[in-house]
Write a structure and sequence with these properties.
CATH architecture of the largest domain: 2-Layer Sandwich
Order of helices and strands: EEEHEEEEHHE
CATH class of the largest domain: Alpha Beta
Largest sheet: 3 strands, antiparallel
CATH topology of the largest domain: GMP Synthetase, Chain A, domain 3
Helix content: 25-40%
Strand content: 25-35%
Strand order of the largest sheet: 1-2-3
Number of helices: 3
Radius of gyration: 19 Å
Structural class: alpha+beta
CATH superfamily of the largest domain: K homology (KH) domain
Distance between the termini: 34 Å
Shape: elongated
């Protein structure tokens, strides 16, 4: 199918390590030649040891699922003869404990707001069907053990 890579780089610098008081800030580089700042979540490791201005794994996970859903939604809408002007999602992930008592992302709620244009606009049932198809096709959602809710 495909292979996907990223390069994560973290350097301790002059900071102590054994005492746990080291920065969790790092760089995440992608194959397109761009990178973003990464860090542990400030909810897990308090600043200044984490970076509030960086993406944390939990945010990246939620964003990946939302992005995957959106891309399939756009494609299924196009195939259905619908035209979308904008798609904005503000997804929310809940970190909790799974059935084994381990920390896990347990629920992700997608909150897409779609602006439609063109002569043919989908009904509420057609929108629900587009979301259902997108969810079924999204390989990130298919890899996620928690609950995905669309709308909310």
């Amino acid at each position: 199918m495909g292979s996907y890579t990223a390069t994560l780089t973290w350097k301790r610098g002059e900071q102590p390590f054994a005492d746990g008081k080291y920065s969790r800030g790092h760089e995440i580089a992608f194959d397109g030649g761009f990178s973003i700042a990464g860090s542990s979540s400030p909810h897990v490791v308090r600043p200044p040891l984490s970076r509030e201005d960086a993406a944390d794994p939990e945010e990246l996970f939620v964003a990946a699922l939302s992005s995957c859903h959106m891309l399939f939604f756009l494609d299924f809408a196009r195939r259905g003869g619908f035209v979308i002007d904008s798609y904005i999602d503000a997804p929310e992930g809940i970190l909790g404990k799974n059935a084994d008592g381990k920390m896990a992302m347990t629920k992700i709620t997608l909150k897409p707001r779609v602006e439609w244009t063109g002569d043919t606009r989908p009904s509420a049932d057609e929108i629900a069907d587009l979301n259902h198809k997108a969810h079924e096709a999204c390989f990130i959602a298919n890899s996620f053990r928690g609950e995905v809710v669309i709308g909310g």
